[in-house]
Write a structure and sequence with these properties.
homotetramer, 2 strands, DNA-binding, 5 helices
DNA sequence: GTGGTCTAGACCACC
DNA sequence: GTGGTCTAGACCACA
């Protein structure tokens, strides 16, 4: 587990992203209980308030809900999670594609670069 | 031309990115003269100071240089530009690839999604 | 019967309000016996301690009293109940009125909106 | 100007409500500039962070937007404001109506009480 | 022990 | 000077 933060973006935003990815990818299971804020804060070496802020954003997105004194739980709405996952993926693809085109790469070259990257991975 | 700025990142950084892309992709030609800061600032509806700061970063990267009285010019060092372009592209590929993997997509699925995107483009 | 709780206010407070309304409106009859805490707790899917606290507030307000072995009973003091009911209603009217005025509605418009609502009800 | 806070609800929530009312009622004009957080915080005798949190909620609702270094501004989208105002009013009416019915008041009695309140106002 | 709220105060980025 | 972020630490309400 990484818990390292870049200095060019707010920590809370990076926490949102990391936790969100864990939920969308299924590493945190739907309906499961999340570690307590205090524990997570200690683990990430961050002030509990910062984590709280991150969670409040996740709550808005409907990925997480709170039970007053019992803790925080991941949404059981698997459809919503899957839909967000695909949406997130689509954005990533479009963003990547657009940036590569801005850089002057043709569609063919883009696919080539990606497959090359894939082959590196498979070594 | 867009010149719209997201509110979650500094304007000057967004300016750096846009101009940099235009240089790397060749839209601004090597050795060519850049529009005056005043004109660009008016076009982008931005404080000239902000553009100034953007250019000072581009100068540091060696993509732009200033000639006292004649204005700002794009670097003629095509090798440097091409090398930066490839470096930039590699980062984009890696970042994209990593995020998709975090989302739980297999290497095969990633390539599929990209080629699908490519086909959309070709319609 | 609803027994759904908003997450932004303490459950016990919401219980107090619901039960109080049932007493003031006469749905729970003066002098009548209340269901046992255990039963109510099961019905509302709430911790018995939470209900206990709710009832202790209702006892303070004099709407409910406990008889050691026989259970909890609703006050027989109909005058007190009626007086509380009117007081509660007055507060509701004033609160509503004040909020509507803050929203910029004139006295006439407020009455209009209420009568419209009444007509909807009568369909 | 009041700036008094009840102790049974979070201060930031009360700030949200007060400011929201001022926007919806037009007391804060569409497109207008809001006082700086520091000023408002001093005026309300509250920590700036608390106000910041309140504003972040208003921003989500689309009632307010921030310009990086210039300050916060009220939305110019008058349609949106008017629509929110009506929605807010409708909720108020329904909530009021429902509570009165729960208290056992007939539709006629409710209208009577409101008009009585209106007449008090007109003295 | 859980989450929620608030304060005081500091530092940063931006214009 | 403006808003944004973060920390440290305290206290509260709830179950």
């Amino acid at each position: 587990m990484s818990w390292q933060f870049a200095s060019d973006r707010p920590i809370y935003a990076q926490l949102v992203e990391v936790i969100q990815l864990k939920i969308l990818s299924g590493e945190y299971e739907p309906g499961g209980k999340l570690p307590s804020i205090r524990d997570l804060a200690a683990e990430a070496a961050v002030n509990p308030n910062t984590l709280q802020r991150a969670f409040s954003e996740l709550e808005q997105k409907g990925l997480v809900h709170t039970q007053r004194t019992a803790g925080r739980f991941i949404s059981e709405d698997q459809d919503r999670i899957e839909s967000l996952r695909q949406q997130y993926a689509k954005q990533a693809v479009q963003g990547f594609y657009g940036r590569m085109q801005s850089l002057g790469y043709s569609t063919g070259e883009i696919v080539t670069l990606v497959t090359e990257r894939m082959e590196e991975e498979n070594l």
